[in-house]
Every structure is written in C-alpha cells, then in structure tokens.
Amino acid sequence: MAIWIADHPDDSDWQKMAWHEESALLADAEGRKLDALMQYQQGYQRKASKMRAQALWADLVRDPEGFAEWWKRPEPGTPPVHVIVWAAKDQPLTKLNAPDLSGKTWTMADLKGKRTLINIWATWCGPCREELPSVQKLYEQVKDLKDVQVVTIDVDEDPGLLDAFVKAQHYTFPILLAKSLVDDLAPEMAIPRNWIVNGEGTLKQEGLGFYRDDWPDKVLKLLRGAQ
Description:
Elements: H1 2-7, H2 13-29, H3 33-42, H4 47-60, H5 64-71, E1 85-92, E2 97-99, E3 105-107, E4 115-121, H6 126-142, E5 148-154, H7 162-169, E6 175-176, H8 179-185, E7 193-197, E8 202-208, H9 215-224
Parallel strand pairs: 4-5, 5-6
Antiparallel strand pairs: 1-8, 2-3, 4-7, 7-8
C-alpha cells in the first residue's frame, strides 16, 4: 500500500488517509511512537487522533509551539511543512550483515569506531528522492574523515532498479541491500528514515521525515554529538 500511495499522489485521498489511520493505531499499540506520530498526521485527523498525536509530539519533540504548524495540512498548491522528528533509541545493530552495490559485505565491525548516519530510502519514495542530494552532499563532506561516515540502505523490493537510478543521479555513497534489517526494526516502512549510530554500533537516534533547509549541517551536528 505504501508503494501504491507513492505512485498515485493524486488518487483516492480517502484510501490513503484510511491506510495512514490504521497504520497509526497499529504503531501506537505496538509502542512505535515515532511511526505512530507521522501516520496520525497523514490520517483522517480526527479529534482523538489529534489529541494522541499532540501527546506523542510533546513526548518526542518537546516543542509544543511547533505542533499546530506541523499538524495542519497545506492548502492545494502550497508546499508542505517539512519536519524531521527525532526519537531516542538504544539498540545495537547486531543483525547487520549485508552487501552493498560494490559487493562489499557490511557488518558491525564496519560501524565500530565511527559515528554513522544510515539513511533509508527507496526509488519509489518521492521525499527520499528529494533528500538524497543532501545525503550525497553530506557524504562528500565526511568521506575522508576517520570518525564519521555516511551509508544508506535501499529497501526496494527489486534491487535491479538501483543501478540505472544511481548512475543517472551520480550518487557515490555506499548503498547497502539490508531491507531485512529495516523490516526488523521498522516494520511499517515509513521513509525517508535516518539512523544516528554511535561508535559502538548502537542506534541512538531515529529520524522520520525530511526538511530541506541546512540538512547536511544539522545532521552532521547530530552525528558528532552521538554518544
């Protein structure tokens, strides 16, 4: 359904909202607060949903003044409010064992000693395609550093789509084929999603959504602060 929504941006708003609403309730019931918050915003926006989203926002974002602007939907023809919401995590990525497009196999050993941004994306995800140039820019900034790195995970069902897409966009950041890892940690597959991993290979912060302004600088600051 997520793929259908991305491929049909102008079709059947009620179907999209119904899917987001049900996804929000499921995520909330399972304790996945970040997923629930983002799904509530895209759902029917009932009074009860708004109250629950506001509580989640207060818990995760701690910026009560920003909720009203984030919650409201834009008028037709106006750009949406882009917000990336970060939530604290504390989860070792012990199941990392995946090849990248060059054939290298990535494991926990590749994360040790470096603060790592892991960007999760797919070719069918419109916001992901908007975000990837910023990911490339940050990768260029840090690729020669010893203590910080940028990698990505593609979650396309058909990895065969990647080669032509990556070459056309001239992306050079590492692309891991680790969909199973993402499925394990983020089963709702809401993307774009960013993980901040500390030098011990532990996921410390998870960000959902995308903002355009100063993305590389803001994310680099989060990376350098990862403990």
